[in-house]
Amino acid sequence: MAHMMLGNAAVAAVLVLFAAVVGSVCRSPAVRHVAWLLVLLKLVTPPLFNIPLPILPAPRVELPAGQPTLLTTTPAGAVSPLAGNTTPRPTWWDRLRDYGAVEWAVGVWAAGSAVWFVWQCRRIVRFRRRLRDAEDAGEEVNAAVARIARELGIANPPPVRIASGIGSPMLWGAGRSTVVLFPSELLTRLGPEARDTLLAHELAHFHRRDHWVRLLEFVATGLYWWHPAVWMARAGIEAAEEECCDSWVVAGLAASPRRYAEALLATVDFIAESQRPCLPPAACGANRGTKLLYRRLTGIMHAERPSRIRGAAALVYVPLAAALVFQPVLQAASPQVLEPFSVASIALPTNAPPTRCPAPRKLIEPSAWATARAPGGAVTAIARDHEVVLRGADGADHVLGPGKPVALAFAPTGNRAATAGPGAAVRLWDDGGRLLADRYAPADARAVAYTPDGTRLLVLDAAGGISVFDPATLAPLDRWAVDGPANSITCTPDGRAVVIAFGSWLDADVGWTECWSIAEHRKMASYTAASAVGATRLSPDGRTLVVGSWDGLVAWRGLPQGDLIAERQLPKNLVAAAAFSPDAGTLPLEPPPPPVQVQGWPEVQVAPVANR
């Protein structure tokens, strides 16, 4: 979701530049209004198509021949024998310090949005309480509203209410609850003609449906409160709306420009005299900007009825409107491979003094919390804290992005891989790390698995849905759903059923596994577990089920009855690494020996070396 919103923010920044150019060269407020409105629409429109932009730096540069590399990661599947006892449990402060700048930025973003919506909703509730004392405008005002509505072509005009304590006449609400609010103190200062011009202005807002634009501004500002494009678009939209409504009042209704200008000045004087006038969110009220007021008063004297956007102007907005459904996706550029060089090929002068070459620097590779090897071992997927890379036989790394996938599965042939995440993204890669196809699941993708024959790709999402895709094109083939917090999915060796792991961090003591038929969408068996299950593994003959819980408790059960064979407490990272790949190869198929208890010494947990 964060990547999608950042993509929208980037496109919106480009649209802001276009709207600024339109505002400087175009005099029509209707054209400027549409230009600024496209900015807000882009911010809240989910993208349907991605445009890959390979502009990020290359993920890896090959070193010259003969330069050693120091690897600090443990071998794939290896587990320290004392990992469960020597590693202290991290505190909450340690977990916070492990978060990077990206996680902190997303947290501040979400917190700011939450504060914005809570604050604005509180203002809305307080204003609705104030409206309880609002009164009907009376027969004279209602008759004027009906007459103005007929001239504007409004069949059902909103009712007018008289209230005290509000700053200016305004249009507020949405749908059937939309009303025109008029300050009772200002009503006594204005004559009938000046009052009618202000009422016509608010009805013009209603006729243009500007109150729905206020709701769009409310949502976009809450989601992108940090983006300057939001505030620039809001200012541009409100200014264009006021000028359009002024044109409707003077040119469309043949009102007196002088009386209308005097009414605006009287409203400005009333706002200046008011003590903290109340203006709720999502309300079409008077703008107190000096520059905008001067421009409005100047335009009133030469007002013309605003024309509709047609012809060449409409053609300009067609490609811009198409940008609402597209999103740029930043990808890493192709890795730059340096040719190895030979020291003998460098010609040195015979009389040159010997030089001392510095020792080559050793590169420390970031640690990996999980690995998965393709059938045959030619390609290896390495999951790190902030990325997942695909390492080929030549040692070149290719980042699988943008965003970090949460699960990965290799095709039985080993030449393709499928990833789940970030979010609902499901992507298909070749063995060189090139993106072949992508699709979005109905909910956040949790796990992905191929059937043993490689003819189907199964994706498990956060809503419990299991989607079946074509492994070549990701075209949807089938879908059904299960109940409960599902975490991972594993196919049986015969390819007829899947085993699904269930459990939640919120209720760590409840977990279970279920076996479902792929063709019949029917639950065949269910087995309880002592805690929330994160990953499962099946033996090649399908007679043993290995169940790994998030707390590190691993159980071996005989199928199909589900008889408990053994239980062992193993390190938690063993299960986390197993959940990354659907074959769960880090889970041992055979139960390790029980812990050895030596008299006078604490109990030592012997952890097995996985058979990856």
Automatic annotation (TrEMBL):
CDD domains named in the record: M56_BlaR1_MecR1_like
Transmembrane portions of the chain: 101-119, 311-330
Stretches assigned to the Peptidase M56 domain: 12-272
Pfam families reported in the protein's UniProt record: Peptidase_M56 (PF05569), WD40 (PF00400)
Protein's organism: Fimbriiglobus ruber
Keywords attached to this entry: Membrane, Transmembrane, Transmembrane helix
Database matches in SUPFAM superfamilies: Quinoprotein alcohol dehydrogenase-like
Protein name (database record): Regulatory sensor-transducer, BlaR1/MecR1 family
Superkingdom, taxonomy of origin: Bacteria
InterPro entries attached to this UniProt entry: Beta-lactam_resp_regulator, Peptidase_M56, Quinoprotein_ADH-like_sf, WD40/YVTN_repeat-like_dom_sf, WD40_rpt
